[in-house]
Specification:
By secondary structure, the protein is mainly alpha-helical. It contains 14 helices and two strands, in the order ααβααβαααααααααα. It has one domain. It is found in: Membrane.
Length: 338
């Protein structure tokens, strides 16, 4: 709906936009690639009188309409992919949940001495996000800590079902499009200048941010699970209650959710731009640049989408529930409102 409204505004304001004139030298500098455009021959008469050219021609506005449509389609498809991959990850948790309720528990192995230094734990957390972001021992310990804190009289509490609803609540915020994301899109389109290779270098931004966020969440998850396992107060009926907020940047877990939101939207934008250029101008066009730049961008986009959906987002959902207040949204919208 938002994308359609923006496209509608572009149609309404088309005449006003065409009257925005800039020097021809500035127009040449801001081109994504050096290629004479046929649309420049039909430039507005007002700009011709001033010896300038329109900032956006009618052809450019038409292509912008198409790009907005492609962005909307790709964003929706990527959101569906995020939900499917996150659900696939959580289905493994459902298997563990049934085993735990049947009494089949596995004791968490004690951490060797060489794993105690902080630098070693950070390195392990970095690589763990690629193959086993939430292992069965960690899930078992974190689930036990959550149930002991909030439902001490209900050991059969379905923690997996609660986590699925919590992930759905976080998913609603992740798939939105905020004003600062649109601001980023505008800045990117303005900085996509010939010779800068902006699109190529910018494709590394979501990957770098994702690796940082994933490592941080994995480190917090491992630390909380170890603290819960080492806690000896459970025998006296006083469950582990240390909050997890202090482990996050600025003690603000939602800052990580905003970063995940930005990563997923930026990745959708990157892929939408790639498919739009491919469908409009072709793979060999100057806007696409050469294959040594185009193919790595496509590979990075796929890696970011799979890793963030299957590993990072479910990991965030479980970590933010440890030692803090319970999220009523996970019990349903009606319970939350009440």
């Amino acid at each position: 709906m938002i994308l359609g409204f923006i496209s509608f505004l572009l149609s309404v304001c088309q005449n006003l936009i065409n009257r925005i004139c800039i020097p021809e030298s500035a127009a040449r500098i801001m081109l994504p690639c050096i290629e004479e455009s046929k649309a420049r021959e039909d430039a507005a008469k007002l700009c011709k009188r001033k010896g300038e050219v329109p900032m956006l021609s009618e052809e450019a506005l038409h292509q912008l309409h198409i790009f907005i449509f492609v962005l909307g389609v790709v964003h929706v498809l990527f959101c569906v992919t995020t939900l499917l991959l996150g659900g696939a990850k959580m289905r493994t948790w459902n298997k563990w949940e049934k085993e735990i309720q049947q009494g089949r528990l596995n004791e968490r192995e004690k951490r060797p001495g060489w794993m105690k230094p902080s630098a070693v734990r950070w390195i392990i957390a970095f690589f763990k996000q690629f193959y086993n972001s939430v292992g069965k021992p960690d899930y078992q310990v974190l689930r036990s800590a959550f149930v002991l804190r909030h439902y001490p009289n209900r050991p059969d509490f379905d923690f997996h079902k609660y986590m699925v609803r919590a992930l759905e609540h976080d998913f609603k915020e992740v798939v939105g499009i905020s004003w600062y994301l649109w601001l980023f899109v505008i800045v990117f389109l303005l900085l996509n200048i010939n010779g800068w290779h902006t699109y190529f270098w910018l494709s590394f931004l979501p990957l770098i941010l994702l690796l940082i966020v994933g490592t941080k969440l994995e480190y917090i998850s491992t630390r909380l699970a170890q603290e819960a396992a080492d806690c000896s107060d459970e025998a006296s009926g006083n469950p582990w209650t240390k909050p997890c907020k202090e482990h996050f940047w600025f003690s603000h877990p939602r800052a990580v959710l905003h970063l995940i939101h930005f990563i997923l939207f930026q990745n959708s934008f990157e892929m939408a731009f790639f498919f739009w250029v491919l469908a409009t101008y072709g793979f060999d066009s100057c806007i696409m640049e050469n294959r040594s730049y185009a193919l790595p961008r496509l590979a990075i986009g796929i890696i970011v989408q799979v890793l963030c959906s299957y590993s990072t987002l479910p990991l965030y959902a479980i970590v933010t529930h440890m030692g803090g207040d319970i999220k009523l949204q996970a019990f349903g919208e009606h319970v939350h409102v009440s």
